[in-house]
Amino acid sequence: VIFGPMFSGKSTELMRRVRRFQIAQYKCIVIKYAKDIRYSKEQMATHDRHTMSAVSACCLADVFTEALNCCVIGIDEGQFAFGDILNLVPLAESVVKLNAVCMICYREASYTKRLGAEKE
């Protein structure tokens, strides 16, 4: 489980870990939320536009059969309620909590504040 506020590098860290498994010749799948089409429909992307092939799904059941054939499953932008993500922590092999950087004082930031008025 990799969690943290917006702009903390969660997708970047997921891509780094999946690439390591790909180099080791593991069969990997990355699943992204189908409604997240900010940068691409067929790839997951970081805010600085680094991309990796991904399968889009609204529900994990949509890619269940495909995922069963893989040794490594990465899920980008899991749409969990805040309490539900904590239920994954005891089940995870590792837990990584990332911090963002405050754009005012440039210190570590555990939280971010969205200032835009966008609804999507």
From TrEMBL:
Its quaternary structure?
Answer: Homotetramer. Tetramerization from dimerization is induced by ATP and increases catalytic efficiency due to a high affinity for thymidine. Interacts (via the KEN box) with FZR1.
Q: Which UniProt keywords apply?
A: ATP-binding, DNA synthesis, Kinase, Nucleotide-binding, Transferase
Any one biological process term the GO annotation gives: thymidine metabolic process
- Catalysed reaction equations from the record: thymidine + ATP = dTMP + ADP + H(+)
Recorded superkingdom: Eukaryota
Q: Which Gene3D superfamilies match?
A: 3.30.60.20, P-loop containing nucleotide triphosphate hydrolases
In the UniProt record, does the keyword Ribonucleoprotein occur?
no
> What Enzyme Commission number does this protein have?
2.7.1.21
UniProt record similarity statement = Belongs to the thymidine kinase family.
List all membrane-crossing ranges: none
One of its Pfam families is TK
Q: What is this protein called?
A: Thymidine kinase
GO MF annotation list:
ATP binding; thymidine kinase activity
